[in-house]
Specification:
- With 119 residues, this protein is mainly alpha-helical.
- It has one domain.
- Helix content is 81%, strand content 0%.
- The protein is built from six helices and no strands.
Length: 119
């Protein structure tokens, strides 16, 4: 199980550092996507910082669950954006990343007082 958690964290890190960096660097596709969403480019920067920061937190002891929760919450927003604005077919990657984030969150639930009381 420990190896599975490390593999999933590595996959999440690669995906979110790549996506977050693309947002922060202003890759044209990301700029267009956020224009379509209609919340402004400031939201692209915020999302990029959250994605890169969440990926880093996945590797900080006693903070892995918080990183996974942050990334999972971001993917909830991404799925909703895809379903209601961008097109439902493109929501699949966000759904998969959200489920992987949930797996990591569940794996580190004991490090998060609010969740550990519920589990």
């Amino acid at each position: 199980m420990r190896i599975a958690i490390i593999v999933v964290k590595a996959l999440l890190t690669l995906a979110f550092v790549a996506a977050g960096s693309a947002k922060l660097l202003g890759v044209p596709m990301m700029v267009e996507t956020y224009d379509t969403i209609g919340l402004g480019q400031w939201f692209r920067y915020l999302t990029g910082v959250i994605e890169v920061g969440g990926a880093i937190l996945l590797w900080v002891p006693k903070r892995q669950g918080y990183g996974a929760a942050l990334l999972g919450a971001t993917m909830v927003g991404a799925v909703l954006s895809h379903l209601f604005v961008l097109g439902a077919a493109s929501a699949r990657p966000a759904i998969v990343l959200g489920l992987l984030s949930t797996f990591v969150l569940w794996s580190y639930r004991r490090d998060m007082p609010v969740i550990s009381r519920l589990a």
